[in-house]
Amino acid sequence: MQSLFTILFVFWVASCCSFRKILTATNTTTFNVIDYGAVGDGLTDDSQAFLKAWKDMCEATQSTPTLEVPLEKTFMLKPLSFNGPCNSPTIHFQLEGNVVAPKNTDAWEGQSKDKWIVFINTDGLIIDGGGQIDGQGSVWWDACKGKLDIALSLHNCSNLQLSGLHHLNSGRNHISLSDCTNTSISSISIVAPEDSPNTDGIDICRSTNILIQDSNIGTGDDCIAMNDGTSYINITGVSCGPGHGISVGSLGEDGAEETVEQVIVHDCSFSGTQNGLRIKTWQGGSGYVRNISYDQITFANTYNPIIIDQFYVDRGRQLYVDEGNQASAVEISNITYRDVNGTSASETAITLNCSMEIGCNDIIMHTINIISSTPGAYINTSCNNAHGKVTSVLPSVSCLDVSGSAEVPSSPPVEVPSVTPLEVPSISPSDENEFYF
Ligand SMILES: *[C@@H]1O[C@H](CO)[C@@H](O)[C@H](O)[C@H]1NC(C)=O
Ligand SMILES: *[C@@H]1O[C@H](CO)[C@@H](O)[C@H](O)[C@H]1NC(C)=O
Ligand SMILES: *[C@@H]1O[C@H](CO)[C@@H](O)[C@H](O)[C@H]1NC(C)=O
Ligand SMILES: *[C@@H]1O[C@H](CO)[C@@H](O)[C@H](O)[C@H]1NC(C)=O
Ligand SMILES: *[C@@H]1O[C@H](CO)[C@@H](O)[C@H](O)[C@H]1NC(C)=O
Ligand SMILES: *[C@@H]1O[C@H](CO)[C@@H](O)[C@H](O)[C@H]1NC(C)=O
Ligand SMILES: *[C@@H]1O[C@H](CO)[C@@H](O)[C@H](O)[C@H]1NC(C)=O
Ligand SMILES: *[C@@H]1O[C@H](CO)[C@@H](O)[C@H](O)[C@H]1NC(C)=O
Ligand SMILES: *[C@@H]1O[C@H](CO)[C@@H](O)[C@H](O)[C@H]1NC(C)=O
């Protein structure tokens, strides 16, 4: 009798479990972190629940399985990595609620302190939902020097779409893209205090075919930084400030050979930034920065609206010393600026400081009108070893050596292949620039 009961009980348990298993495998396309034990009180460590939900979503075979992070809750996550590849060609991380980093650095005990949330080896990942990612950066800004964490690290991704989230107070870079292709970032905001250290908005390296559009970025450091191995980057409709502007580089540090090419920066604005459009390379490096096009740009009270610096030196570093400026340099060529307006907070609105050996070639400027942010005050331009062509530019760039070879001003903009947005099915209910890979 008792054994019969046991058999029935075992059968009941087994059927119950297999039923649940079938449900998960065949019906459920939504994996809500609450169902995996996440608490969402902002204090409990919810990392394991997120990782389990990710694992099930990643193994799901339905089209677009969704990991759901519900509204009106705040989940504390320790440093963690969401790993692909996943089974479905499209996967959806729907962040409606908030995630926050631990309030102290002990959570990173025993592991590298350079990252917080990592997505790695994903194809067709969609991250959206309108939620917030809070890096609790003040913990890091106050505590220590050295390597702090990147809030959101996207590594080896293809066909990724990140949109609509709010990113704040990262320990270091807010978003880093490395080894990614066909990726779009749109309609996001990134905010950190103006005096927070090294909190770049978006850093890109070794990536191609990237679209960044319609976003507001104000972090005190680079708004967007393009580093080694980036090409076919389209930055459209981005507002920057406060911070250090949209940067290419720095490239060529410690003699490195590094490249950036095929970049378009279109319809962007800079408000109260240290720099606007900046290209910075170290002396002694090699490689190139070429085919960069900036158009429809506005500046409000920007300290260095346009700057190319082939003698970049980071704080605390020594300028490479050479006899008579004979050092190698990262080549800078075919850089076009057109339809640029606004105000400069410094007397020198345009700085082209290029090396004697390599110089900057095919710098094309036209229809530029920058005035001082102090009404009526004088502003000027500074050039060393820059060659190119100028049409209707104020302040006048008489220092640009127009005798050098130059593109015709009407050259077409850089071609950047478009990143096609993926379909996101609606779900109910509710629904300094270093990389370490
Ligand atoms: C699972 O999906 C099947 C087929 O679409 C449907 O008939 C069934 O009602 C679903 N079961 C649940 C529990 O949603
Ligand atoms: C990059 O991610 C893809 C999955 O999207 C994977 O197949 C590939 O092996 C990964 N590459 C490396 C170098 O890990
Ligand atoms: C990038 O997108 C293009 C066009 O949508 C597609 O042909 C190509 O295969 C994609 N590349 C990768 C690595 O997914
Ligand atoms: C600039 O890009 C064009 C194609 O858009 C290419 O033909 C040309 O070689 C590139 N120039 C340089 C210097 O890379
Ligand atoms: C710059 O100013 C000119 C003249 O007012 C205007 O035609 C042009 O649209 C402005 N461009 C931008 C990007 O604001
Ligand atoms: C150009 O760079 C050199 C080397 O750093 C520096 O001494 C010089 O002041 C710079 N010139 C301008 C105009 O910024
Ligand atoms: C630009 O103006 C500033 C301030 O008047 C002056 O110090 C500097 O020498 C000028 N630079 C050039 C290249 O004329
Ligand atoms: C400069 O870039 C344009 C595309 O923006 C390209 O058509 C042209 O070939 C490039 N010029 C040189 C000298 O590479
Ligand atoms: C850059 O992206 C914007 C927004 O998708 C698009 O309108 C524009 O055509 C793209 N530019 C290039 C050169 O691909």
UniProtKB/TrEMBL annotation:
Cellular location(s): Secreted, Cell wall
Pfam families tied to this protein: Glyco_hydro_28
Statement: the UniProt record of this protein carries the keyword Translocase: no
TM segment ranges: none
One GO biological process term: cell wall organization
Segments for region (Disordered): 406-437
GO molecular function, one term: polygalacturonase activity
Protein family membership: Belongs to the glycosyl hydrolase 28 family.
Protein name stated in the entry: Pectin lyase-like superfamily protein
